[in-house]
Design a protein that fits this description.
about 120 residues, alpha+beta, Alpha-Beta Plaits, four-stranded antiparallel beta sheet
């Protein structure tokens, strides 16, 4: 059996609002806090990429999607408790043998939006 590979799409919640209300330096501090929390909860060989203004992509191998979700939930808790009081949404997709790179990316992206909807509905 092949080693699991999980693709995570992350979105820093309300980064534009932080930039608009507190200034870009505050937004930059929040992005640094996200990166620091990711590095603390992922492993040195896991790939962390800033994908856009408020988005990150992580490629995580050797652990299951549930384990990745647990780690990213801890990252979010660190952000909420940090001086920056940030949060993030994330979506995960575990590579399947039939996946093309495009399909894996599309599934992770779709999971981000599905997860964000559940978070909002649950009040977080």
């Amino acid at each position: 059996m092949a080693e699991p590979l999980v693709l995570a799409f992350l979105d820093v919640d309300h980064l534009k609002d932080v930039n608009d209300s507190l200034g870009h330096a505050a937004g930059d501090r929040l992005l640094v806090a996200v990166t620091t929390a990711l590095r603390a909860n992922l492993r040195p060989h896991d790939l962390i990429i800033r994908y856009g203004g408020d988005e990150f992509v992580c490629a995580i191998s050797g652990i299951t999607q549930d384990e990745v979700a647990t780690r990213l939930t801890l990252v979010n808790e660190l952000l909420v408790d940090s001086h920056e009081h940030g949060s993030m949404s994330f979506g995960l997709a575990e590579h399947e043998p039939s996946d093309s790179p495009e399909r894996l990316i599309a599934r992770a992206d779709a999971a981000l939006y599905t997860g964000r909807g559940r978070r909002r509905a649950s009040g977080s």
